[in-house]
Structures are given as structure tokens and as C-alpha cells.
Amino acid sequence: MLTFVGNVAFRSTLAEPNEATLLRPHPHRGPPGYAGCSLGPLVLALWPRYRPLLARRTRRPAEGAKVLFVGGVPPAMSSETILQHMEQFGPATVVKRCRGYLYLKFAEPAAVAKARASPEHLVEGASLTVEPALAKKKQWYCQTDPGYPVRVRKLGTGIVHIQNMISMAMQRHLARRVLSLGRSPAGFYKPSFAGRHMKHRMHLSTFCLGHHWDTLSHEYTNVRSDSDGLPVLSLSEDLLDLACGIQHDLDQKCKKQMFPKMRPEACIVNHYTTEGSLGLHQDLDESESSLHQGLPVISLSLGCSARFLFTMNPEEEEIRSCVLKSGDIFIFGGPARLLHHGIQKVFPNTTPKKLQRDLASLTGRLNLTFRQIR
Ligand SMILES: O=C(O)CCC(=O)C(=O)O
Fold it and tell me: How far away, in angstroms, is 326 Cα from ligand 1 center?
């Protein structure tokens, strides 16, 4: 649920937080400095419309690898027995033994090739299988752009801003996809929220995927209950994988699990014109269990940059801000799941040059937030 708090909790026509106190002059980040990928157009040209967004990299054996994977190992068979058999190809040591398989490291890579060339590995009546071990390489799901390093900024416990996480090729693909969904009958509409005495128009357009978030009843529904009653668009597997991939990549980057694992069931897509904004609010409409576990909200920005406001306690703490640029991710969860947040300002003419054509029919900023609602 979006809850609006005190005199800073508002959307639409109510006064925005004082710009003079909250805004620093925006360091305009023009298109030339933006994370570009020279292969972007080629990638897109080869990218069929509904191909998954994620490059699931298949792991390849490391070149010159000395490590051999041995499978089909009976539980009772000792590592020494296997070692004895394998040493006919060269001196080796056991580096890891698990139930059903083990890894051996040879002194020379040629031994791995010899072991693989052998037609059979019959040991104590068991037929073992061998494979060169896969390179222990980090698997990244999001396609980041070389030369534009991903930067993880920890802004507080459970609050993370990741810069440059989404490559330009993927941003372009996402922008086209969102625009085409947004143009469909169950696409963008102008939501209202219920004020004390009357409904207020929000300063943005929106549509949902997976589950509809009703801005009037503050409930997740299957139909657009606060507007035209149309069934909500589905949340496709590739978008779902993208959100999971972002969490995965963040953990890889930070070498630890940063947030409890979340499986998105709803994605709220917002479009802000350069006059758009969203008052400080909390996201409280997901299930008690989801909130209690601190399952994160993952937010992805596309198009113009925006000043994002956040605070754990608007009554007592200073409201902090950061600029979210196209391709950035903002995640809050764990102890910060009830973070108060909002969009104060969208900066005109800040869409990266390479994205401008894809977003030509829509100026301003797009934002996708993924949540697990149950
Ligand atoms: O546009 C954003 O970055 C924030 C969106 C948001 O807070 C919301 O949809 O609840």
C-alpha cells in the first residue's frame, strides 16, 4: 500500500518538499558520458522480439584447465580408489569430494585430455563419467556494459543503489517492450488516490503486470478495479527472471546475500513526464509475510534521471536523496522494507542518447518496481 505520511506525504497537487532545501543543482549527465555499448545496435538487431532479456551464460571449461570432474561415483567408493585409477593419466590430487562426484586436479592439463579420451572408466564395477571442470566464473545475468563498471552504493542498512547495472542494449529492449505494453488497452492510465475528502490525480501514468495495484482500495487485484476493469497484463517469465537476476548479480558483486530472496509477482510500471512526481510514501500493501520477511522492492529506472527521496522516518530524520539514472537499480528491503520514498523531480533532457529513439514517443522517465505480494 502506498501510505502518505504527515505533511510530506502526498502525491499530485499537494505541495512538494521544499526544493531549496532538498535539491542540489543537478550535475547534468549528458548523453556522451553515458554507459554506451558499441555492440548494442547489433545485439538488438539480432534480438528476436520475445527472446529472454537475460543472457544466461553457459559456463565453459577454462582453457588449459587441470581440473577434472568425475561423476557417477558410488557413495561407498573411496576417493583414493578413484585417484589410483585416474593417476594412470598423470599425477593428481583430489580437490573436492561430494556425494556422487568429485574433482581431481592434475599436474598438467594434458592429463585431463587423456582421461577424457579414454573410452571407459570402470572402477570396482562402476562406470565413472569424466568432464573437464567448468571454469569457476561468476555468472552474471544482467548484461552490463564493459567500461561502465557497476557501482554498488550502500545507502543504509537494507538500502542499495546500483549504478550502471542494466546495459544499454537491455535498456533499449526493455523500453520498447514497456512502451508496447503501455500502448495496449490495459496499458498506461492516470491513477487517482483517495485523499481525506476527495480523489486526487497522481502526477504519473501507470500500469501493472502480474497483479494490479488498486490505488483507491490499496489492494492487489486481478483486474484494474480502480479504472476500466480490464484484466491485468501478465508478468512474463523474462521480466521475472530479470528481477531475480538483479538480486543474484548483486549478491555476486557483494559476495554475500544482501536481501532475502524475493520472487516477484507484481511489477508496477510508472511513467513520469518531466513535470511528474510521486510524494513520499511507504509500500505496505504486500502481504504481512512479505513485509515481515523484508522481501525487497526492486526498482529499475529508464529514460530521464530523477531525484529520488528516501527516509526511514520523515518525522524525525532528514530526508535523503539520490539521483537515479537510466539503467540504475534501487533496492530496499530487510530492515528498510518500510522505507518512505518518492520522486521529487524528473530532470528534462537526461535520457541517454542511445535510448532516445526507443523512447521517442514518450518523454520523461519510466520506472519498474518488482515486488512479491504474498
Ligand atoms: O519511480 C520510482 O522510482 C519509485 C516508484 C515507487 O515508489 C512506487 O511505485 O511505489
Answer: 14
The lowest-confidence range among 16-30, 69-83, 172-186, 253-267 is 16-30
Q: Is 278 in the pocket of ligand 1 (CB under 6 A)?
A: yes
Instruction: Give the residue, by CA position, lying nearest to ligand 1 atom 1.
Output: 367
Summarize the confidence of residues 109-129 as an average pLDDT: 93
| Cα 342 to averaged position of ligand 1 atoms, centre (Å) | 6
Please give the C-alpha separations between residue 208 and each of 36, 199, 223, 267, 293, in angstroms, as whole numbers: 29, 20, 10, 6, 23
Query: Is residue 174 exposed (0-12), middle (13-18) or buried (19+ Cβ within 10 Å)?
Result: buried
- Which residues, in sequence order, are CB contacts of 302 under 8 Å at separation 6+? 171, 174, 175, 178, 326, 327, 355, 359, 365, 366, 367, 368
Helices (H) and strands (E) in the chain, counts: 8, 22
Q: Do residues 245 and 351 touch, judged by C-beta distance below 8 A? A: no
**Distance of CA 36 from the midpoint of ligand 1 (Å):** 25
Q: Which atom of ligand 1 is the closest one to the Cα of 324? A: 3
Question: Residue 197: which pLDDT band, with cuts at 50, 70 and 90?
Answer: confident
Residue having the nearest C-alpha atom to atom 10 of ligand 1: 283
Cα 268 to middle of ligand 1, angstroms: 8
Ligand 1 within 6 A of CB of 309: no
Pocket flag, ligand 1, residue 328 (CB < 6 Å): no
Ligand 1 mean position, distance from CA 178 (Å): 16
DSSP per-residue letters across 237-272: HHHHHHHHHHHHHHHHHHTS--S------EEEEEEE
The Å distance, Cα 343 to ligand 1 centre, comes to 7
* pLDDT (tens digit per residue) in 53-72: 444 444 455 555 888 989 98
Alpha helix (H) residue ranges in the chain: 19-22, 40-45, 79-86, 109-117, 168-183, 237-254, 288-293, 353-356
User: What domains are defined for the chain?
Assistant: 2-57+141-371 (2.60.120.590), 67-132 (3.30.70.330)
Cβ-contact 282, 347 below 8 angstroms: no
Alpha-carbon separation of residue 144 from 54, 149, 337, 355 (angstroms): 11, 8, 27, 15
